[in-house]
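Reminder to self: C-alpha cells first, then the designed residues, so the page reads top to bottom the way the pipeline ran.
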C-alpha cells in the first residue's frame, strides 16, 4: 500500500499514478499517506468501457473529501455519476 511505502516520509510533494483501473485499491491503501500529500495526478480508466474499471468518481470524491481542489479544465468531461 502507499501507506506502507511512504510511512517514513515526512511529506509527499507529488504523486502520479497510472495503474490501469486499480485506483480503488490504491485509495484504500492511502488513508495515512493522503494526509502528507500536496499534489496528485491520477489517471483513471473510465474510457475503457468496463464498469469495474470506472474509478474517476471514487478518485474525485476521495480527494475532495481530503481537502483537495480539483481544477476545472475546459474540454474535460465532468466526473461521471
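Designed residues (81 positions):
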Amino acid at each position: 500500500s502507499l501507506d506502507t511505502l511512504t510511512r517514513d516520509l515526512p511529506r509527499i510533494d507529488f504523486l502520479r499514478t497510472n495503474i490501469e483501473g486499480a485506483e480503488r485499491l490504491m485509495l484504500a491503501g492511502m488513508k495515512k499517506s493522503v494526509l502528507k500529500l500536496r499534489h496528485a495526478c491520477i489517471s483513471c480508466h473510465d474510457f475503457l468501457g468496463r464498469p469495474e474499471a470506472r474509478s474517476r468518481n471514487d478518485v474525485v470524491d476521495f480527494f475532495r473529501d481530503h481537502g483537495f481542489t480539483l481544477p476545472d479544465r475546459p474540454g474535460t468531461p465532468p466526473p461521471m455519476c
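The chain has a mean pLDDT of 87.
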